[in-house]
User: Fold these one by one.
Assistant:
Number 1:
Amino acid sequence: MTPEFLVRIATIAGITFVIPVVVALYCRVRSAPLKIIAAYTSIAFAQSLYLVWLASHGIHNLWLMHLFIPVQAGMFLWALALWQTREIARTAVLLTIPLYLAAWIVLTLTVESFSTFPRFVKIFEGLLVIAVASYTLVTRSQHISGPITSYPWFWVGAALVIYLSFGAIVNPVSSLLLPYAPERVLIMSGVNSVLLMVCNVCFARAMVTASARLRAGGVPAAAT
Amino acid sequence: MTEPVAPVDQLWWLFLTGTLVALILSVAFIASMIIQQRRYLATTRQFGGRLLLAQEEERAWVARELHDDLIQRVAMVGQEISELEGTMGGEPLRLAGIREELHDLAAEIRRIAHRMHPTVLDHLGLPAALVQLAAEFGAQGLDVHVEAGIAAEEVPGPVATCFYRVAQEALRNIVRHAGVRRASVRLARESGGFSLTVEDGGRGFDPEAAASYAGLGLTSLRERMRLLQGRLTLRSFPGRGTTLTAWAPLEARG
């Protein structure tokens, strides 16, 4: 795999952020959690464009990755909170957002460095979102009457679990490998890009599923 | 002598192994979830199907008992009262009142028996049952236009029962909520199956907003359709009426 090929994959992965947004607009998604996911992919798309622009002009862009992490974590947790079946779980997940932001500030000011990839904040984000997404999948799957794949929260939850199981450690390891083996960092970035594409396709599928459920007779807004 | 592995290589292999394990675990978690939920769903559906079937059979049995036994006995008592009226001299007015009461009771029992299980469905088939249903709702002030594009014998029994219940529930909802005096019921062959569409031009509603307080009726109908490998589609917009479509495949046998 040549570096050019891997960069191309990363570019394509960045472009796939558009798919969920387009599908959400086309399907006129009305569910609040999916609107948050659509908003997230829009912001992520803008961020990836800016990352590419900065890189192509030879400007350091790792600071943007650092700043994007709390936005990403906050939006994922917010969407997942709205999918909780119990009020106490919803409140608990919503509370993790300011707690994570506080942890991000502390870690960024103390152990993180803008001159390399985000490490601890990324691992923390990954573990937190994976835990909440898994909890959402398990609790919601106990109260359904149709195939699990016909529910949007399944696609979003599954996408987050799969993507972040790799994504949570790719940045910290990249930061360690970057000075010694940059070609391996590129390979990891390539794999991460493929998983990102899968994640975005799953988000788009969630939008389609929500729209199909609504057409089939509807379900409560929070359930979609 | 083997050369010692460099720390970078060690980190690389550690990373590869770790991510592979994490990926496999997460994919396995999702896959096991799908498999487990499918099994659970299959069991629930099987149970639900049996329950609905048992309920239909029970209703049919009660309806038959009411119609064939109870109504006949009430009629016989009425007949005896008529005979008594002729032989007894006193209180003919009171006897006439009792006879009238029995007549009303028989009509009520017949109505209940019909609601539990319309015998016309078994004897004349779905199109005739729909026409009769339309007449019943006509008495409540709803003018129902029935259009049946298929013959009675084409529709399998379970589909006929299911479609009848869909039409019954939909028309009941129109009377309750739509605020109109006209509705239409269309039975046809469509997209490799049978379809029943109940439409009104009433006040309509927002399906997404209404779904949170949807009654048991629609949920039960959706489950019935699912058991036939069919589907139930509801389209409605505030001020633009409601269309409920039930579709079942040709091979549906319940």
Number 2:
Amino acid sequence: MDTLSRRKFLKLTSGVLAVGATSTILSLDQIAQAAFNRPLASGTPILVVVTLYGGNDGLNTLIPYKDPIYFSSRPDISYKAESMLPLDGELALNPNMGGIKGLWDQKKVAIVRGVGYPKPDHSHFSSMAKWQTASPDRAINSGWLGRWLDSQAEDPMLAISLGSVLPPMLAGTKVSGSALPLGGLVVPKGGLATECIQLSKATRSDSKLMAAAATSMRNLFSITASVEPILKLPAPPTPDLPTVNGGNAGGDNNLSQQLDVVAKLITAGSPTKVWSVSLGGFDTHANEANAQAQLLGVVSTSLTRFMSQLKSTTRHNDVTVMIYSEFGRRVKGNASQGTDHGTSAPMFLIGEQIKGGYYGDQPSISKLVDGDLAVTTDFRDVYATVLESVLKSPPEQTLGKWSGRTNFLTPA
Amino acid sequence: MNAKRLETSRLFHRFGFGPRPGEYALAMKDGIVATRNKFLTVPAIDIGASKVVDPVITDLGPRPAPNSAEVVPFAIAMRTQTQDLILWWLDRMVLSDHGLTERLTWFWHGHWATSIQKIEYALPMFIQNKTLRTNALGNFTTMTKAMLNDGALQFWLDGQDSTSKAPNENLGRELMELFVLGVNHYTEDDVKAIARALTGYQVVRSNGLVSINQNRRDANPVTLLGKTGAFSSDSLAEFLSARDDCAAFITQRLWFRFISSTEDMPASFSVKGAFANRNISSAVNAMANDQSMSDERYSLVKSPVEWFVSACRALELVPSQLVKAGQLTNFLDNLGQDPFSPPNVGGWPSGGAWLSSATAQYRLAFAAWLIKQSSLNGLNNLPIASRLLKSADWLGVPQWGARTEAALRSSLDNSAQFALLALCSPEYIVSA
């Protein structure tokens, strides 16, 4: 499986690069060659970050289903106890998260409870910026994984975000991750390609932004050469999922499409250690129960499908998925069958290397802080653990001195 | 870099939507003072803009029952009206003789960022767009009052669902954070208070009509930012916009969108004082005269719509006449910027976010598609011998870098390729 797709990768890639072999293209060639000449070493850990935009309601994701305060706080938007998926005597998953419940039963899901940061900010933008920069105390311009990229040898394949706009998380101070739109990339060929590559060279008179514009075009050529052939392959099979009408269930939404591309590229040995995918729509101020359940259903089925796809590859032991949102929501519902912006919420980590179970304390819904759930775990504990134990990099480069850890990985 | 060329280029690309063929060279002859005055003086009648006919956008009423015979014509009308609305605005941006009004309307659209994706009907968005244009260079307090009574904004931020029994904080919070005061210039208690003051609004979704239902309204006094009283939307707009934080915040937003989204605003930036009376026009004048306008550090990435509109002006194309409209909106969507559909209430991204390998690809394809439909007169009229140099004037670029010159020089005999490279060059994607 791996071998076959890598051969296709090699063949088609060199085909694309044969156009006008000048020295300029050679250096691009080198980048693309590196992408497959040194495929990610077998056993190299891979991080897949799933961002849920809008503020996912943590209390309707991981539900204190025995607590009468939960039901009385949210008369219009609480689920029926019998429809939920109990994990133990206190907490249950949202009724639509059957797939993740299955992975939990296999001990592959860590749920970090009550995650947030000090002095919670209720603004989507500020809060998401705090999560993505990992700097809740002061505003900075670089993302936490962007700073990690700064510490690595420059390679446009190292961190890739699906979609055409790059999330701030992947913006470093020196280098940034690359963006890959769902439909893949199509680049000019022939003489025009030569001139476009000329146009993407750095020049001394460039301002920082012009240099970034030139880099974006340069990356277009190097990444396209590497990934385009892979994107044309069929999605990897899902050996342990039931098939529906000849295909696997859950593959028709945007998150699934993003994860399909990630699965294809991981299978082909793309030298990418960090992937970023996302799903929006969690800002459920109104008519929440249906909307959120539907979205969580998408998250659950997409990730279950993805984890299953990885089983048909040699990489399934290497991948760790991390799911987060910018904040949870207010405990008490509003008049619109929805909830307003809140504070802490659970994070999910999924993978073969994960030591399944709960981490962090469940915030009490009777002892609220200004009407909101308390923060019991700082997200930097989770990031530090991800950096140290998944990406095998010293967290200090990215987070500064940070001693907190959440030990959700099976000891090596 | 030549300071006069730089400042002239910035006037064209930041206070308008780029030059039409010949305009930049003419402005260089007129000199910076005359050019600046021309950009800042809104003419009584804009002949170019007046040729753009308002779209026919009607109240389509409630959505018909599922599976009824009316569903299909309704859906077609919804789609057509939205597309007509987008094309109408893009046409105004491209065809206006004087760019400042549309440019500011575009800025305010990103400021009071409302998306049609939620309300779905074109009519409330059309009304909002007219409100933004009417107030674009007027008084910010008046604009805030108008926006609090704007159906599209109210609906977008759940104002119609906010009642005295359970106030919805969405509108109140964003009003302070994103529209008037800036983040952290209020407490969480202020958010709860303003939410109560803003209860009771009702919106007719299909036409944006706003009313207040006294039964749903919390008319009790609240304490907001230290002041206790029963606020109306007007007194709320007056109270918030009179605060010093408002002047600081709007100044910051103008800096961010017109001068630099990547560099910090220096203390010398002279806009806040000019905005003392909340007159937007004075603030914009101060900004155009500020010393930062000729400072090389402050380059700015053109957003996809800004890039597209300026390309249309250089290529002498009219958006609504492009073949086909569906493809045009697809390109804008791929680049991540559909007018009337900002990604969230924070408005459009900026700077490096528009510069991914993916957008590089779409921009190339988009430019090629536009060039195919243009006579390229602006370029073809330049003699080959001086084409390289003069093409910078054609597009209003201060100067080509060595790298771009090399690419353009090898395309001198191929004007379509020359135009494609020029429009996708770092010097054109970025306003120097």
